[in-house]
Amino acid sequence: MKWILLRGLAREQGHWGSFIEQLRRAFPGHQFHPVDLPGTGVHFKDTSPLTIGQIRECVQRQVAHIPPPYNVLALSLGGMVALDWAQHVSKGEIQQLVLINTSSGFSPPWQRMRPGAWPRLLRLLARRELFQREADVLALSSNRPLALGTVKHWYSIQRQRPVSARNALRQITAAARFRPAEKRPMADALLLASCGDRLVSWRCSQALEQRWQWTLKLHPDAGHDLPLDDPQWIIQQIEQFLGR
């Protein structure tokens, strides 16, 4: 199986940390291909589009050299891109879909971004001191004790491949505008959500579950960055989902 991995708002493939290696150990016969969204990672100099559909088209061009079918594992904003992708391909091109702490226009704005998160997020975009900004991003997105090594790693990423405030705002705009088509793109998909997410309510994943009868699994206390907070739990859920 070939997996495409998509990260979230203003994050890139480097932010997966050790999660990709853990996936490779858990699924030795599978291939994992992390892809950066425009405006992040290797594409940090590009301008991020203002719609999820245009971001999805950029992702599709990046993976055109990889023969389908694909499985897609995506977090947050990446989950919106993955969902839009599943609704704009021929049947069977995407075989498995794993969406982590994502949202859509099927949910109200106050669930898609918790009201208490907006002031902190805007302050983060305006903060110029990179190390403290990355520490604050980590503190907001993770519910685990602040790991200095992770902050240093994220700081190094931002120094090398900085995501501009302009591109972050353009990604926020694209996310806010996103509403999937009404038609269910596939018979089942795996929705993973954190009850402790302080950015996006788990009820956004529940809305997709109820609309399309997809499989929803809830983590009791992890934060928005579930792959960072409990990667083994994600792997266990994928193993169970694929093994059915």
**Proportion of residues in β-strands:** 5-15%
How helical, in percent, are the residues?
40-55%
List SSEs in N-to-C order: EHEHEHEHHHHHEHEHH
Largest sheet: 6 strands, parallel
CATH superfamily: Alpha/Beta hydrolase fold, catalytic domain
Question: What is the SS-derived class?
Answer: alpha/beta
From the 3D structure, determine the CATH topology: Rossmann fold
What radius of gyration results from the CA coordinates? 17 Å
Separation of termini? 16 Å
How many individual β-strands? 6
> What's the number of domains?
1
Q: Which CATH C-level class is it?
A: Alpha Beta
- Total of helices: 11
Mass-distribution shape: globular
Stretches where pLDDT is under 50 for at least 5 consecutive residues are: none
Kindly state the mean pLDDT as a whole number?
Answer: 95
**How is the largest sheet built, in terms of strand order?**
2-1-3-4-5-6
